[in-house]
Design goal:
The chain is α+β, with helices and mostly antiparallel strands. About 50% of the residues lie in helices and about 25% in strands. Strands 1-2-3-4 form a 4-stranded antiparallel sheet, with helices on one face. The N and C termini lie far apart (about 55 Å).
């Protein structure tokens, strides 16, 4: 009789473990599917926004030429009421965010204006020449 009880107990434990394993597997399948759907949606949004970002970059490249002094670049940005940040030999203009999925939730996209500095440890001077205009992204990940 005791061996019958043990066999039934083992059978119940195996059934419970099987059900738990099935629930865990279904949860991971559901999470994976949602992650794929979010990734596809983020890719569509990124593709749409990339067109806008590239158009803005092209506009800056048409107006502002490599070799221009820092003072002319800032004058242009200020005349258009464009807010910008300036640090470490670079001016950045925020264009917006791009969505992403776990473990990153978004990417900040900005236009970067890089300058050659006569003295790297000193702030930009009005005469420092523009050396590059490009798009850059900074991710916000876990």
């Amino acid at each position: 009789m005791t061996s019958c009880r043990v066999a039934r107990l083992v059978k119940r434990i195996l059934i419970i473990l099987g059900v738990l394993l099935s629930v865990v597997l279904l949860y991971f399948a559901y999470a994976y599917r949602n992650l794929k759907l979010q990734s596809e949606a983020a890719n569509r949004v990124r593709a749409d926004r990339e067109v806008t970002f590239q158009a803005e970059l092209a506009q800056y490249r048409r107006v502002l030429r490599v070799g221009m002094p820092h003072s002319e670049v800032t004058k242009y940005l200020e005349s258009r009421n464009v807010s910008y940040n300036e640090e470490r030999g670079e001016i950045t203009v925020n264009l917006g965010d791009e969505p992403d999925v776990f473990p990153c939730n978004r990417w900040a996209v900005y236009v970067s204006f890089e300058f050659a500095r006569a003295q790297p440890e000193v702030a930009l001077s009005p005469q420092d020449p523009l050396t590059a205009i490009s798009l850059k992204r900074i991710g916000h990940c876990l």
